[in-house]
Amino acid sequence: MRYCSIMCSSALVDGDVLDDVAALVTERNRIDAALARAVRAAELAQAPERDGQKSMASWLRGHGRLSGSEALRLVTAGRALEHLPALAKAAEAGLVSAGQVAEAARAVTPRRLAAAAERGVDLAVVDAVFTQVATEQPHADLVAVVARYLLGLEPDGPEPDPTEGRRLVFVRHADGSVSFSGHLDAVGGEKVQTAVEAHVQADRPAGDERTRAQRQGDALLQIADNALATGAVPVLRTVRPHVAVRIDLDDLATGQGAADMGFGATISAARARWLACDGRISRVVFGPDGVPLDVGREQRLVSGALRRAVELRDGGCVFTGCDAPSHWTDVHHLVHWIDGGETSLENSALLCERHHTKVHHGFRVERQPSGRWRTWRPDGTEITTPEPLLSPAA
Prior knowledge:
It comes from Geodermatophilus obscurus. By secondary structure, this protein is of the alpha+beta class.
């Protein structure tokens, strides 16, 4: 009897936990719907302009610290809920998830709304069907219903545009290694496979025990090496693309410590010393015997060496809330050259084209002694992003 009592008690506890989970899922759905609505309201009001941002997606990335895909999902959801009021009501009641809203949103893109209008489709009926399936059936059923609707709307599929479906996504891990995934149209995929296969077949030494996947990975890297070595890549902001490593002079000399690479990976100083032997690697050493960073008043344009140094120091656009990478940026003189500002590392800042324009029209960026950049609006108020929460130990 005691064993039965314990088991029954455990079952009751488990039931309580599941009730809690269900309640939290419902609450999350409500919050997601409210957030999507608020994002849409901010978008319609052009609110991101107040903080110098172009769109709600860019504002969410910089100020909400969301990934690009998550920010875009929120913006898309807010727009979609305007066209699907029944689904919006169900989402606000916690009955429909953000994932279901994202699936339904595929049916109300501008192009598909125009196609529906041309065919006299009653969106209220579509909305009602989507809502019923979303609230009563598994997620996969909604996916199937949306797919059937789109097939009926565009029986021959959209106009073939090979660029529309192409994508390549890089994910950097904590150890600096990179994974990537993507999708190419048939012709694009054929081109890439042909180039990779040429290197795979050309590099088959006796006793090679690499798997085919390993050989293909090595082939892709070889293609990149060849392109960088021969200069067969576009010049970005006056600097030919290169692998860049930032390392302090003492670390380079001793082989101890760490170095930072251009896209943010951290490697050992020993690895950096190895890379420095390769002529295709640009080394920027911050120290008394390093690259001359201060070219003074005689030169207005930023040299390649100075730009590389600014890129490695700033990493990307320094305007608060912006995540534009360094290759999208210009080097801005904090004190304008015409006003006596030097062309030096100390007087330089990376700004993307949009924020470079903003700074020339009243916004201001300033680097603190700690190395942190701060941004002010034309009215003197500071643009800030949420401060990270301190750990209990702090």
